[in-house]
Input
Amino acid sequence: DNTARIWNATDATLIKTLRHEAWVYSCAFSFDDKLIVTACDDKTVRIWDTQSGQLKRTLAGHQDSVRSSCFSADGNRVISASDDRTARIWDAQ
Output
C-alpha cells in the first residue's frame, strides 16, 4: 500500500503512517530514534522525522529500485543498496 508505518510495540497502536509513491522495501531507525530511513521501489531513499512523520530529505540517484537502507552508527550517513547493482553512501544531514 506504499506506506511505512510506525507502531507502538507495547500496545500495537498505530503511531504514524509514512506515505510513498511506490512500494517500500525496508526501513530503519537512526540510533537515536529521531529519524527513519526508507528504501523504495521509486528509486529513492527517504529520511523522515520520527516524531512528526514529516519527510526531511529525499535522496535520488539510483537507477532502479532501492531494496535496503540504514544509518551509520553516528547517524551522519545513510547507505543504500539498489537493484541497479550499486550501493551508495549519502549525507544524512
